[in-house]
Amino acid sequence: MHDPRASVLDMLHAIARARDLAAGIDEAEFLGDERTRWAVYSQIIILGEAANRVDRIFQAAHPEVA
């Protein structure tokens, strides 16, 4: 069985990486920089995949994660 805490940690890391990648640039710069957009997008994908691995039992016990 997968440890849901590992998935939550993956989610937190993906959020931190996405924030770091977009730090210091405004919306126009972000939209104009395809490499940064794809890098942030990849972190959003990782975040979603990790969220899908968090089982319902863990979500029920920790509604702040769900």
In what range is the share of β-strand residues? Answer: under 5%
Helix content: over 70%
Rg value: 14 Å
Q: Tell me the number of structural domains.
A: 1
| Global geometry | elongated
**DSSP strand tally:** 0
Query: How would you sum up the major sheet?
Result: none
SS field, number of helical segments: 4
N-to-C SSE string, H for helix and E for strand: HHHH
Pick out the low-confidence regions.
none
Q: What attributes characterize this protein structure?
A:
66 residues; 76% helix; 0% strand; mainly alpha; single chain; elongated
Describe this structure in words.
The chain is an all-alpha fold. The protein has one domain (4-61). 76% of the residues lie in helices and 0% in strands. The protein is built from 4 helices and no strands. The chain has helices spanning 4-22, 27-32, 34-52, 56-61. Helix 1 (4-22) runs antiparallel to helix 3. The protein is elongated, with a radius of gyration of 14 Å. The model has no long low-confidence stretch (mean pLDDT 94).
